[in-house]
Each structure stands twice: as structure tokens, then as C-alpha cells.
Write a structure and sequence with these properties.
Chain B: Keywords: DNA-binding, Isomerase, Topoisomerase. Chain B: This is DNA topoisomerase. Chain B: It is an enzyme of class 5 (isomerase). The complex is a heterodimer of chains A (about 250) and B (about 575). With about 250 residues, chain A is α+β, with helices and mostly antiparallel strands. Chain A folds into 2 domains: about 50 residues; about 190 residues, Beta Barrel (OB fold (Dihydrolipoamide Acetyltransferase, E2P)). Chain A is built from 6 helices and 10 strands. In chain A, the strands form 2 sheets. An 8-stranded mixed beta sheet of chain A has the order 1-8-9-6-5-2-7-10, with no helix packed on it. Chain A has a two-stranded antiparallel sheet with strand order 3-4. In chain A, strand 8 and strand 9 form a beta hairpin. In chain A, helix 5 crosses helix 6. The longest helix of chain A has 23 residues. The C terminus of chain A is likely disordered. Chain B has about 575 residues and is α+β, with helices and mostly antiparallel strands. Chain B folds into 4 domains: about 100 residues, 3-Layer(aba) Sandwich (Rossmann fold); about 190 residues, Topoisomerase I, domain 2 (Orthogonal Bundle); about 120 residues, Topoisomerase I, domain 3 (Distorted Sandwich); about 110 residues, Topoisomerase I, domain 4, CATH 1.10.290.10. In chain B, helix 2 packs across helix 4. The radius of gyration of chain B is 29 Å and the shape is flat. The chains are: A alpha+beta (about 250), B alpha+beta (about 575).
Chain lengths: ~250, ~575
Amino acid sequence: MTTLQDQLSATLFQTKQLPVSRAWLSTFLTTSTSNRQIPLPALTQTALFRILNSDIRETLSTINPTSLLPRNITDPNTKETRLQGPIPLQVLDIEDIGSSLWSQVEAIERVERGEAVRGREIVRTVNVEGREEGLNGNNNGSGGNATGGPHRLTFQDAAGNRVVGIELHRIKEIGIGKLSIGAKVVVGNAVVARGVVLLTPDCARVLGGKIEAMDRVWKEGRKMRLKARVEEMESGELGINRNRNGDPMEE
Amino acid sequence: MTSVLGHLTGLDFESAYRGWGSCPPGFLFEAPVLDEVGKEKRAIAENIQEQAKYSKGLLIWTDCDREGEHIGREVRHQARKGNPRIQTKRAKFSNTERAHVLRAAIEPIELDERQANAVAARIELDLRIGAAFTRLQSLQLQPLTPILTNKTISYGSCQFPTLGFVVERYLRVKRFKPEKFWGIKVMHLRDGIKVNFLWNRVHLFDRAAVIIMLERCLTAKQAKITKVNQKPTSKWRPLPLTTVDLQMMGSRYLRMDGKTVMEAAEKLYTKGFISYPRTETDQFDKAIDLKKLIEKQLPDNNWGGYAQGLLNGNFRTPRSGRHNDQAHPPIHPICWVSPTELNANEKKVYEFVVRRFLACCSEDAKGQTTEVEIQYGDEMFHANGLIVLERNYLDVYVYDKWESSQQLPNFQMGELFEPTEARIFDGKTTPPNYLTEPELIGLMDANGIGTDATMAEHIAKVKDREYVATVSRRSGRSSVQELIPTRLGIALVEGYDNVVVGLPDSPSLSKPFLRKEMELRMRDICAGTKTKQQVVHESLEMYREVFIHTQRRIEMLKSACRKYIVEQADS
């Protein structure tokens, strides 16, 4: 008979392609089953929820190389290659490359002012009850309404390797304000061109979740980063050399 | 039979409160007010009293809108002074066609007290709020600099949001940062025609991504036709003309500002050439005989022939918009007038009204579009062609443009071909333009600032007060008048915005929100869900709160004025 740990591990791998770290799983089991008997489906759900909201470098296994990014995947000299996978990744950064940076700054500022535009009409979005919200107002990314895209994402695998992906075909779960930083995406059988993963609904499965601390920092700093990049462009360097290592989530 | 000239009475504070130093400005929210017949209207009021003495009944024919209802009530008030037992009725009419007018005379109705009350509320609110803020800001700001010493720095609840729109756009233009973008252009040469396919993504702001996408197109070599669509299309004739549209079109095509357009229209109306020019209605009543109105235009040298064509079978029932103010029909010509009898502005406005009317009664323009879509690599591109087959209304409505484009050669669905050229292009984002008057009218309309009758006046007011100036972009025939705030205009908006910074539920006076709420309350009075007293009280409370904040944080307003007027004038 298989152990509870094996069962959980197998279910999460088969249904979500997540190779869970044995060490993490055993800690998880000792802390959550110590008191009473929990049915397996409920336990699986709890484990999944924890993983989706964790840093996969701590929760996923790095033993099997097929679930990690190949070393040379980001090589810009490779015109085309294929990523077998499935590889679980977490989102470190997301940008809308279909809209200008400045229009995104303007949209954020409109939200900060508590306004929204409906055609020619300006509407107030400030809640009239005046609910308690920090003075800097947790300006939900860009106010909920997801941007147009396509999006450019920076991913990280369980071993900490990074890769950039571009939303080649619309993926409905991807959007600023929709997809959080730290969200989990499983990529399998994807085309990689010049070191960039071409994301389509067929090769990218969005599991969701987030890493709360990173997400908060990312949101708070988004307007500043956008403005900084606009200024950088203004001072002559027209944003060409930011494409690689352009990741603001450097620890 | 006698007449009036606008409102008979005016509301003002009792004399003890009229002097600017007579009381703290905040007192004006509750200082006693009087309704008095204005000096220049006294003769009119006396005439009505006099005439009433010898009459049994009074039939009021003021315009059938809110203001008209209020004026009607003023007339009744004067008439009763002369004859307390006089019976009063009002005629309900929306155009001056004979049959319609006769019917209105036979079936008079009662004055609508609610609408009159809504106007009374609006008058009282405008007086109190306007006077309180005007005095406060004038008294506080005048001492700052000699430039302002003798200036009345007026405030109006419509004026300020109007100014706010101009300033907001100005600052957007000033703060704008251009950015580079990249895209892919595909060209294919077939049958001697260069077909340019446009990228469905238009352009992206990431050069590396575009290069990768282009490389994948080139690697794929062949493009595939995924859609060939030929379908009839039409360009719709315009909707019946409303005041807002007349003002917007007027400034766009006739090179006149809204106020000038309205003055000309007003004159044309009083001379009986066009219908009442203040209307929100964009649908013609079924009862109105449009063909008879078209017939009147036959003598014209320019469009007489076109009008004849309509009568000979080209006539179509006009489209109906969604607005009906229940008071006036869309603006239309009543009879033909020889151009020699009109001045230059009247001529332009008259011509526009007639052409628009004839266009409304015409068939849509017809054409055929061809849409070809291709998949090339992972990317989609498209090309469109248009052939205009029948111009119809466009022949008379010279303001609309719709022209055939380049013809597309034959493409077969599913066909594979190697495009002649595919390359990357780049460009830069450009700032928005400064606000133009038609845009401003559109914004005011969408945000409930002013009515169709008053919008042009509010715009003229912010120009008069030197909060806003007009500047020409480009010159000659293609010139466009743009609205740019003055330093004082910017200072006031920034000052008021700063006054409410950090206050959770106090929108700035430069925003349309408070005024819009007030407007909604006026409608409540008309609907009978609120009384005049309630509305006056609620609206005053709303503005009084901002007033208190402004007094407390007056330093914000002063420092904005110092920043823009004192310091920038020195440098």
C-alpha cells in the first residue's frame, strides 16, 4: 500500500503537473494531519492551495531535470527549439507590450484619483462609504480592468532559472491585475524562439496563485518603474538594451 | 396678446448682504434672498399687469422646456397682480406648424409647477454657491499680486468643471512622453497592384518581440489567405440635428465657436427661417410633414435640385435617435430664404441646417467592402478595400467624407503565396492635441455640465474671465482653434484640487461630479420625488462642505496662484 505522502504526490503531479518536494510534503503532512483525519481530496486541495501561494523554489522538487528549464534555453542564437516539459514556473514580472508605458502611467493615476472613464464620461470610483483603506490606497494593480496585451512575462522554475515568455496568442488568464506575481504556470511542448518562450493556450496552463509579499512590492512599485523606464528612454537610450535581464524583481 | 423677454425676475441677496464686505462669504449660503423684477424688465411686468386687468384668461406660450415653465409662472404672477381672478393655462407645443399650433391653442394644459420649481432651485443654488465662492476667492486672491487686484475671480458650478476639462487636457499634453514602437508591414504585388497588409497587432512597444515575430513570418515563407469577405456596406445618413450637435459641427465645419453658431441660429429662428434651435430631440415626430418642408427648399440654386430628387422618390423617413425632450423637434428649416438676406454667419448656419435636414431625409450612402485576411507565420494581417457605389446623402451633406480606396486584386480563400515584402517599421507615440471646442462640448454633454442651451455660454464665460484662451493650430483653411488655460486658470484648478487632497469624499470643484449630482436632483424635482426645499438644502450642504475645506485650506489656493502667476510672471 502506498503512503499518504505518495498518494498526494502522485495526484498533484498527475492533475497539475506539479512535482512536489518530498521534504516540503512531509512537513506539510505532519503539521496538517497531526490532530485529526482529513480525507485525501480535502488534503490535496489544501496542499495545492499552499503550493500555488508559495515560492516554488521551496515547495517543488528539482530532482527531475524534465521539470526544470534547460540550461541553454535563453540562448538568443538559437532560432527555434522546443521546450518539452511540463515545467512548472512562477511569474516574476508581467508587462503589457501592446500599450505605451505612459498610457499605463496615466491609467494608474486615474485610478489613484478615484476616476474611471466611460467613453467621454468621467466616473467616480471612490467608494462613497469611505471604507478604511491605506492612504496610498492599495491601487489594485491597474484597477481590475485587464490591459490589452500581448504581455511579456518573466518566469522562474523550481531551481531559480529564469526565462522570458511572450503571449503569442491570447491567454485569457494573463493580464495585469488578473495574474499576480508568483502565479504558477505550467509550460509544456512550447516553441522557444531566440530564447523567448512563445506562449499560447495550448502550451501554457495557468494554475494561478501568487506570492503575496512579492506581489505587493511589485504593485506598489509599478508606477515608479514605468516612469523610470520612460525617463530612461527620454535620456536617449530608446529601451533597446532592457530586453534581457530587464527583470525588476531582483532580490 | 403680448410678449416677454426671458426671465422677468432675478434673484438677489437682500441689500444688506450685497456689498462684498457686508458679511463673511460663508453667510451667503443662508442669507435672505429676494425675487425682484429687474429694472429693464419693469415695463414688461407692468404691461402684463395692465393687460390682465381687462382679461378673463391668460394663455401662456413660452417655450415648452423647464425655463419656459418658470417664465410662464413669472408671467402668471404678474398677471394675478393686475387681476387676482384671472384664469391661467399654458399651450403645449413643440413646433410652429399651423395645425400643431392650432391644436395647442384648443387643448391648453396647466403650468408644470415641478419644472418651474426645478428652475427656481437652480437659480437659488447658482446665486448662493456662485456668490459665496466668487467672493471668497476674489477677496483672498486679489491681494496676492497687482495682476489680480482689480479682477473679479468668478466661480460658477458649471464654469469650473468646464475650465477643469481644459486644464486636464493641457496638463496631459504637457506631461506627455513620446515612446518608440515597432510593427510589421507586409506588401504583396499582384496584378500590378501593391497591396499593403496591416498587422492585426498594429504595433508593439517591444522591439525584440517584434523581431522574433517577423523572423517567424519570414521563416514560414508562405502566407495563407484565411478570409476573403466581400459585403455591402453603407455609411449612415446623420441623425436629426440637436443643439449639441449643431454646436459641435458648427465649430468643426463652419469655423465658428459654439456661442456664435447659437447667436446666428437664434436670429434665424426669430426671423422664422429655422425651428427652435435649442433642443435635445433627435427624432422627428410622425405628425410632421417633412415633404412639405423639403418642398420649401426647391428654389435654392445649390440644393434645390437635390430637394426635387427627394420629392421625386428619393425621400426616406429619417432615422430616429434615442433622445426626445418632449418639447422641441430636431432643428430643421421652416422656409427658404435667399442667401442675400442673411449675413455671413447666418448663411453658413442656415446652409448647414438645411443640408443636414435634407441629408436626414435621404438614403444612406452605399458601397462594398472587401476584407482580406492572411496568416503569415504566427501573425495575422489584413487589407481592406472600399468602393462607394451610391453617394446618396453625401451629395448634399458635404461635411461627411467617404471615398473609395485602392482596389484589391483577386485572392482566393485558402490560397498560399509568398509575400513580396515583409519588414519592420517603427514610429513614435504623439501627445494628444489640446482640447477643441467641439470636444469640450462633447465632454460637457457627457458629464452633465450645463444644458444644450447654456454650454456655449459657459465656454464663453471661461474665456471672458481669462481662465482660458484660444490659440490656432496650423494656419489657413486647415486651422483649428484650440483651448489653452491661462496661468490663472491652471492655478485655480490646481489650487482647488489641492484643497481636497486626502479628503476621502470631497471631489474637487474642477471636476464635474458635484454639478452632475445637483443636475440629478433637479430631475428629482421634475419627477416629483423631491421638493425644491429638499434639493436646495441638500445641494447647499454638499457645496458648503467644500466651501469650509476651501476656507480652511485657502493657503493651497494662494500658493497655486503664487506659483503660476506671481513667480512665473517674474521670471
